[in-house]
Amino acid sequence: MKLTPLCTMTAYVDNVTTTGRMAIGNRQLYVVRDGVVEGERIKGKVQAGGGDNLLVDPSGMGHVDARVVWETDDGVIIYVQYFGRVMMNEKVGAAFKAGAGTEFGDCHFVTQPRFECGDPRYAWLNETVAIAEGRVAEGRAIQYKMYACDVGE
Fold first, then answer.
1. What is the arithmetic mean of pLDDT over 25-37?
2. How far is the C-alpha of 153 from the C-alpha of 147, rounded, in Å?
3. Which of 21, 53, 116, 124 lies in disulfide reach of 79, CB 3.0 to 4.6 Å?
4. Is residue 42 within 8 Å of residue 15, measured between CB atoms?
């Protein structure tokens, strides 16, 4: 398998709302304020209003369930949905609360993005199998390095 860099997405969040502790865990609702997408083939911004409906189970594992909308620099709308896992360790929690950042690899934080786009210039994203590594970024943000998964070496 070959991983080809796709882009880096940084999404800034304003609000974090929680349902409180339940038997299945604690649902944390992160609302995206804005953000940026930077890559060789795709550049743009993250529109406001998307978010992550993260469920942190009793073991501390966060189950990512996120949806965001990108608008490319050339005006194309791309819907992005991603699911994954993040281990909500002390370093992650403290960094997010302080508005500080962590490094990639400080915790298990992996997602599988899927893309939807009707514009022919970005139709290749509809067939892209992707994987992303995440981290907490400075300024109350989440940052992902996204990669396209291809066959071969």
1. 96
2. 14
3. 116
4. no
